[in-house]
């Protein structure tokens, strides 16, 4: 009887020891905001967005001038000239809207391409840290449904430091 009880206690101890996994948690948004690579990506995207905004502003001003000119001279235009001016304005508006859509898509493509590079580097860093710290799981805090985490398991700052080193080496 004593041996059965002892065996049961040993089995319960083994199962309870393995029931708790060593977990690390990463805040990828924080990596993007605070790392040198994330700041570089944001800067590149902001620069491109500013360039596109400048182009769109110029197109918008051209449309506005055309509309003002048309409104001022509408009474002196004959029907054919009115139709041509309205058609020109509509074409400019379509071009503006198409450019706006194209610029938005291009910014999204650039963002995805830049983020893919950061994600790949961070994934490699997490793999090596997981092995180094003997972690069984590393969760991304924003996508995993983590409702609470102890600061002890947050590896984000360490990942940022390592990623900054990787980013400097790539430059």
Which secondary structure elements does this structure contain, and how are they paired or packed?
Blueprint: H1 2-19, E1 23-26, H2 28-34, H3 36-73, H4 79-132, E2 137-140, H5 156-170
Parallel strand pairs: 1-2
Give structural notes.
With 171 residues, this protein is mainly alpha-helical. The chain has a single domain, classed as 2-Layer Sandwich (Protein Binding, DinI Protein, Chain A), CATH 3.30.910. The protein contains 5 helices and 2 strands; from the N terminus they run αβαααβα. The termini are far apart.
What distinguishing features does this structure have?
Protein Binding, DinI Protein, Chain A; 171 residues; 77% helix; 5 helices; mainly alpha; 5% strand
The CATH topology label is: Protein Binding, DinI Protein, Chain A
Which sheet architecture does the biggest sheet show? 2 strands, parallel
Instruction: Identify the CATH class.
Output: Alpha Beta
The termini sit apart by 69 Å
Helix content: over 70%
Kindly provide the radius of gyration, computed on alpha-carbon positions and rounded to a whole number of angstroms.
29 Å
How many beta-strand runs?
2
**Tertiary shape:** rod-shaped
CATH homologous superfamily designation: Skp domain
Number of domains: 1
> Which CATH architecture?
2-Layer Sandwich
Number of helices: 5
pLDDT averaged residue by residue? 87
Oligomer: single chain
Structural class: mainly alpha
**Strand order across the biggest sheet?**
1-2
Q: How much strand content do the residues show?
A: under 5%
């Amino acid at each position: 009887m004593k041996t059965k009880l002892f065996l049961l206690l040993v089995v319960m101890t083994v199962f309870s020891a393995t029931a708790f996994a060593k977990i690390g948690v990463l805040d990828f948004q924080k990596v993007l905001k605070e790392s040198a690579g994330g700041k570089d990506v944001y800067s590149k995207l902001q620069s491109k967005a500013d360039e596109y905004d400048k182009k769109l502003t110029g197109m918008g001003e051209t449309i506005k001038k055309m509309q003002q000119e048309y409104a001022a001279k509408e009474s002196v235009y004959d029907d054919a000239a009115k139709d041509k001016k309205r058609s020109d304005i509509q074409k400019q508006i379509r071009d503006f809207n198409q450019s706006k859509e194209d610029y938005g898509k291009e910014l999204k493509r650039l963002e995805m391409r830049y983020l893919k590079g950061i994600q790949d580097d961070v994934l490699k860093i997490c793999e090596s840290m997981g092995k180094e710290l003997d972690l069984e799981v590393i969760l991304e805090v924003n996508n995993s449904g983590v409702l609470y985490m102890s600061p002890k398991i947050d590896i984000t700052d360490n990942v940022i430091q390592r990623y900054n080193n990787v980013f400097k080496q790539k430059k």
